[in-house]
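User: We ran a pulldown and think these components assemble together. Before we commit to crystallization trials, I'd like a predicted model of the whole complex to look at. Sequences follow.
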Amino acid sequence: MAAIKVHGFHASTATNMVLCCLNEKQVEYDFVLVDLLTGAHKKPQYLALNPFGVVPTIQDGDLTLFESRAILRYLAQKFKGQGTDLLGSTLSEEALVYQWCEVEGQSFNPPVSTIVSQILVVPRRGGSTDEAAVEMNIEKLGKVLDIYEERLSKSKYLAGDFFSLADLQHLPHTHYLVNACGKGDLISSRKHVNAWWEDISSRPTWQKVAENMKVN
Amino acid sequence: MAMIKVHGHHLSTATRLVLCCLEEKQVDYELAFVDLSAGDHKQPQYLALNPFGVVPSIQDGDLTLFESRAVIKYLATKYRGQGTELLGNNVSEQALVDQWCEVEGQSFNPPASTILFQTFVVPIKGGRTDEAVVKMNVEKVVKVLDIYEERLSKSKYLAGDFFSLADLQHLPCTEYLINGCGKGDVISSRKHVKAWWKDISSRPVEESH
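Assistant: Here's a predicted model for the assembly, 425 residues in total across the polymer chains.
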């Protein structure tokens, strides 16, 4: 059986989310570089895979799939029973996994990706960081993290006392926030969020992926 | 068995999404009204259900759940085998449902809900609709709809030739875009998007709202 093909970019948070999930599920894959720096993601060859022109996209036999969070759920379901269980053990636990996955996608990701984009990406494209936008999004992110602090004071991981997709989804952007944007205090100032971050970011499956994300 | 309780507001798009899904799955429910204009959603009683202070939240026995897209995935999974199938028929079809659900949540909803916010919410709070913001977000919605147009020229519904959660997720917001924000032309000017919209918005469940 052909290995899953991942079309992505080594520094892309969404790509690394998928690679981490493949590692957790012990699934072999081939990585195909889509060089964002040369605009490969906007060329017809890539748009044929993903008309939105963003990375990553996977190919698994006849199935072509994009949107990293959908890819994660597909892998977690298809490979249930091998590697780490990422969906909880019951339907109710799975529902809570989806709930916290949505929280990441709807409430955590918008402010954190704006902060990372302003600090890391904009200057590399010749622009200057919009400090007001960074401040505003730090405030928004702080409010979300306060809710995580409360949740994680009662629960080891977001969906319950088990690691899941919901925690995994937070890894790539938080990695940049802490290690490349100098905003680690947002995490370290919150006792339970900090303990959770230390735990999830030290998973060997993540550490292997984080190697791709070293920023100069 | 106690009925599912939905805490929400009948005008909220996220609440309507959950109610539509319950009706597609033929599941009985009670609606507990959360008075947004009175700030109920920010009171301790509601925050105990959903610390993010937004509607809806559901209670199903011991389970309390929020985030409408997670709620509808839960309902579609729990009630598989009754009502309308909303997840496709196999793992690959379900993956495509999920993909287009993410497209709605990540690419369609942000600009569409900003248009709704500017049109409906800002004036209620005493401000003025920012037309430049509306225009910018209409442009974003249109780019997404161009991709939908291409997709729907090859596929009856978003995930394939079957109605699914992915189509359902678009109903509440698009209805307001057309009927409250006067932006119906973004739908009607695209042949396949228009046909898709006509189909999904005329489902008996949807017409009853």
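The mean pLDDT of chain B is 96. That may be worth checking against your pulldown data before setting up trials.

User: Thanks, that helps.
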